[in-house]
Design goal:
Elements lengths: L1 H8 L18 E7 L2 E8 L5 E5 L10 H7 L4 E5 L16 H14 L5 E6 L1 H12 L4 E7 L18 H15 L6 H14 L5 H4 L6 E6 L7 H10 L4 E5 L6 H4 L1 H13 L1
Parallel strand pairs: 3-4, 3-5, 5-6, 6-7, 7-8
Antiparallel strand pairs: 1-2, 2-4
Helix pairs in contact: 2-10, 3-4
């Protein structure tokens, strides 16, 4: 038993998938009809500048639980479940990062938030890039973790590497618990797959027009994003910071929330 415990303790963080955290009790949560879809959101904290948090593909806003606890001490935080994910029902409209960005703007409009800091992970980070390029008037800062600007920035077979298969299996179980249409999980996967193969397509010229202060961040052992692609995006976006969270993968916010939160807070408070 002792040997087994020691072996378990030596597993590097980037090969673990810690439990999905719970969100703290929100001061407000609703499912609202915007942009021809129902979107779930929750808000935390009242003082400080607004922050909108966008989660990754297949997941839900609970994945931000460790970050919301810290951010809500100094910011007014909003999380949302992407259309078709978590508590937001699936519709027949084809997925695109442009559509996800429209949903985010529609939610900010509904909440009367003129500009916001955007914190995005994976698909949420790509949506953040889309917002920074197409709606710079609404983006005060962008923290993009585990994002890519082209499909070529993804590692072949990355979705089968590391803990990514365990993440997908967990998301399916969470979808069964959270979704108003749990039977549509296969349709969610079928809808996301072609988007991931063909999007995003952000040429360097578009990235170079981003004016919001930007942090391009990733885990040192990300399963799906090429490290050279992360470095390239940071080099192309004017004034962008780059940060690599050591000993973590595409799920650094779970694997080392203390270090992740420090990088996030340092950027948002700068």
């Amino acid at each position: 038993m002792a040997k087994a415990a020691r072996a378990k303790n030596t597993t590097p963080a980037w090969l673990t998938l810690p439990p999905t955290p719970e969100l703290p009790a929100p001061r407000r949560s609703e499912t609202v009809s915007i942009n021809r879809v129902k979107i779930y959101f929750a808000q935390f904290g009242e003082a400080g500048p607004p922050v909108l948090m966008l989660h990754g593909g297949l997941g839900n806003s609970n994945y931000w639980g460790h970050q919301v606890i810290e951010l809500s001490k100094q910011f007014a935080v909003t999380v949302m479940d992407t259309r078709g994910h978590g508590r937001s029902p699936l519709t027949s409209r084809a997925f695109s990062y442009g559509l996800f960005a429209q949903d985010a703007i529609a939610l900010l409009d509904y909440l009367h938030i003129p500009t916001s800091r955007i914190v995005g992970w994976s698909d949420g980070g790509v949506t953040g890039l889309e917002l920074a390029m197409t709606r710079p008037d609404r983006v005060a800062k962008l923290f993009a973790f585990g994002a890519n600007s082209t499909p070529a920035g993804m590692k072949p077979g990355g979705a089968r590497a590391g803990v990514f298969p365990a993440y997908a299996a967990r998301c399916r179980a969470e979808y069964a618990e959270l979704s108003p249409n749990p039977e549509k999980w296969p349709r969610l996967v079928e809808g996301l797959s072609p988007m991931w193969r063909s999007e995003p397509n952000y040429p360097d010229q578009k990235l170079a027009r981003i004016t919001a202060p930007t942090a391009i961040v990733d885990g040192a052992y990300d399963e799906i994003i090429k490290p050279e692609h992360t470095r390239h995006m940071a080099a192309v976006i004017p004034g962008a910071r780059i940060a690599i969270v050591p000993n973590t993968s595409h799920f650094a916010m779970l694997q080392d929330p203390a270090v992740f939160n420090r990088a996030l807070m340092d950027f948002l408070l700068a």
